[in-house]
Design goal:
heterotrimer, A alpha+beta, B alpha+beta, C alpha+beta, A: alpha+beta, Ribosomal Protein S5, domain 2, six-stranded mixed β-sheet, four-stranded antiparallel β-sheet, 6 helices, elongated, B: alpha+beta, OB fold (Dihydrolipoamide Acetyltransferase, E2P), Ribosomal Protein S8, Chain: A, domain 1, five-stranded mixed β-barrel, Ribosomal RNA-processing protein 40 (chain B), NA-bd_OB-fold (chain B), nucleus (chain B)
Amino acid sequence: MAEQYKTLHSAKYYRDYLKNDIRPDCRQLSAFRPVIINVDSIKTADGSAIVKIGRTTVVCGIKAEICRPKPETPRQGFLVPNVDLPPLCSSKFKSGPPSDQAQVLTQIIADILENSRCINLEQLCIFPDKIAWCLYADIICLDYDGSLIDACALALISCLKVVTLPEVEYDPGLDKQQVNLEKRSPLNISCTFVATTFAIFDDKLILSDPSSEEENLSAGTLTVVTSDEELCYMHKPGGSPLNEEQITKFISICFFKLSVILRNIATY
Amino acid sequence: MNRVVVGNYYLPGEIIKDIKSKDRETIIGPGLCRCEEDANCLVASQAGYLCFRSPNTYWLESRNNRYVPKKTDLVVGIITKKSGDTLRVDLGSAESASLSMLAFEGATKKIKPDVNIGDIVYAKVLNAHKEMEPELVCIDQYYKAGRLGVLPNNGFLINTNQKLTQMLLNAENPLLRTLGRQFPYEIVVGVNGKIWFRANQTKEMLTLCKMFEEAKNQSDQVITNICRQLK
Amino acid sequence: MEVDTLKEENNIDRLKCDLGLLSRPDGSALFTEGQTVVLAALYGPVEVKMQKVLVEKASIECIYKPKAGFPCVQDRFKESFIKNICETSLAVSLYPRSTILVNIQEMQNHGQLLSCAINAACMACLDSGIDMKFLFGSVSCFLMKDGELSLIPPVNESSIKGMFVFVFNNTKGEVIASHTEGLFTAEQYHDALEGGRQMGVAAYVKRGTRSPFVCHLSLSERRGGTRRHDNDMLLPLRPELGDHPGYRAMFF
C-alpha cells in the first residue's frame, strides 16, 4: 500500500514523514548518509578514489600526461576536471554528447578547484615553457542518488591527495626527457574542501544531503563548499528564497561536517 | 456600466492591500492572483496599472505581447494544416487552435466549406483552457455565420501587438473612422494582434499598413490629435 | 528626467536599461551595469518540442551566446543558472505544455557579466508581460585583497580576492540564488550579502525607491505604450521607426 501511495502522491508521502521529523530512509532531517572513501584502487591511474555517499557512487581517476605549458602561463601545469554522467547511473541521462547537467557539474567542480586554491599549478611544471604535467581528473558517476556535487568534490580531493607523479628529468639543451617510473612523489595539496548540499522542501524544511528523490521533490538546493577556515563556494541555483538566518545555519553545519570528513581523510 | 478607476502602477510580486469585496467575493482579472498569506490582499503578476470597477472587480492593465486564448475572443488566424474534418489555425499563441470543418454556416458531413491551407479566418474562441488546445468556431449559437468565416483572398494581414488591436476595437477611438472618410476600406481586427484589411488600391492598403505601424508607437492622445488635424 | 533619478544613488547610476529594442521577440531588454552590457530577449509561451513537454508547467530554455566564439562549458553553467532563476520566478504553472525561451547575448564584459545577464533576463520577462511570481534583481559584490567590499569592479583585476553574485526577489528581499568565486569567510559572505541588498538591488526591487529602469518602464507605459526611450539612453541600436521622415510625410 505504501508503495502505491508513494508513487501517486510522492510529495504528500514525504510531507507525512517529515511532519514527524524523519525521512523515509530513516534519517533525521539534518542527518547525513554514511560516507565511504576508497583510494588507490585503480592501478592503471596515477591516482584514484571511489566515494560512496549513501547510494551515490562516484569514481575519480587522475591520469598524468606530459605537455607543453601555455605561453601565457609558462610556469604552470594543468589540472582538467571532467564529470561524466553515463546512462548507467540513472535513467535521467541518455547516451551521446555530455548532457547539460554534466557540463554544469564539470564547471562547478572546476570552479571549486580554482576557488579553493588547494593546488598550486606551478608544482606541475617540470621545465618552464617547455614541459609540464597535465592532470586529467575524470569523475564518473556510477550510481546517481543525489548530492552529486558533494560526492564529486570529495572524490576529487581524495584522489588529488593520493596522486603520485613519476620523476622526470629534462635536458633543455637536447630537448629530451627521461621519465623515472620507479621514483614517484605525491602532490602538495594545501587544503581540503568539502561540499555539502541541502534541499529546501516546501520552502521551509531543510534536508541535509538529499537523495535524488528528495532533490526532485524539493524546491531548490543549496551547496556550500568549505575549505579549512574559509568558504570557497556558495552555490544556490534558484529555488525557494532563503533569509540570512537560514544561510548562517547552513554554514555552521558545513564547518561541522568539514571537521568530521577531515578526521576521516586524515586516517589514510 | 460602472466607472473604471485606474490606480497605482504595480510590479510583479507586489502586494495590493485592502481590496474591496462584495458578499466576501472579489473578481480578479488578468495580471493578478490571490495572496496566499493574507486573504484581503492580491499579488500582481504582471507590470501595469491597477484597474477597479465597483463593486468588486480588479484587473491589471498591462502590456501582453504573446496572445493567450480566452473564451469568446474574436480572433483572426491562418489555416496551417488540414487533417480530416479539423483544421489547425495559427493564432500566434503557444499552441495552434483547432477548427472543425462543421463549424461553418451551412456545413454538413456532405457539404463542406471551401477552406484551404493559407486561408485567413475570422473566428470565435469556443473553448480555451490552459490544459487543452483552444477550439474555434465560425458560427454563433444560432448556427449563423454573422461576420465570422473565411476572409477573402485579396486582403492583407499584418501582425501587430494586442495593445493596438484593443485600441482599434475601442468604439471611441477615432482612427478607423477618420481613415474611412479618406477612402473606403474593409477591416477585421482580431484581439490576438492580427489585423486583416483590404482597400480598392494598393496605395491605400499601404497607407493603412503604415498608419497601424505608426499608431503602435503612439499614445491614444497623440493619435486623437493627429486625427483631429486630418478632419 | 531619467538622468536626475539616475544620479540619486551612487551605485544606481551605473545601471541602465532599455526595454523593447527588438521587434520580433515578445520581450527584450538591453541591460547596462557600468561597462557591462547584455541583451536579453524572451519568446514565450511558444510551442514546445515533443521531448521537452511538461504536462504541469512550462519548460524554460535559456540560450547564452558569448560575445565571440562558440558557447563553452562556462556558458552552459550560466544558462542553467539563469534558467533555474527564471523557473523560480515565472508563474510557470500557468502555461503548461509550452516553452519559454530566454536568449541572452553578451555584448560587453567588464566584470559583472553574470549579474548583468540575470538582470537583463528579468527585464526581458517584465517587458514580455508574462506572468511572474516576483521580480528578481542581481548584484555583484567584489571582495578585495585588503578585505574591503565593493559593488564596482576594480580597475586592477589582480586586487580581487573573491566575487559574489546574489539574486534577490522583490517581495521580501530574500536570496533566491547565489554564486561565488574565490575564498572568503562566513562573515565576509554576510557582509557582502547585506551590502549587496542595501546598496545594489534593493533600490530596484523594493517599492518606494524605485530604480531608474523600472521608472523607465512605468514612464513608457504612461506614454501609452511607446517603447522608445529618450535620447539619453546608450546605444544607437534602437529602431527609429516613428521618427523616420518618410513615415511622417505619409502620416500628415
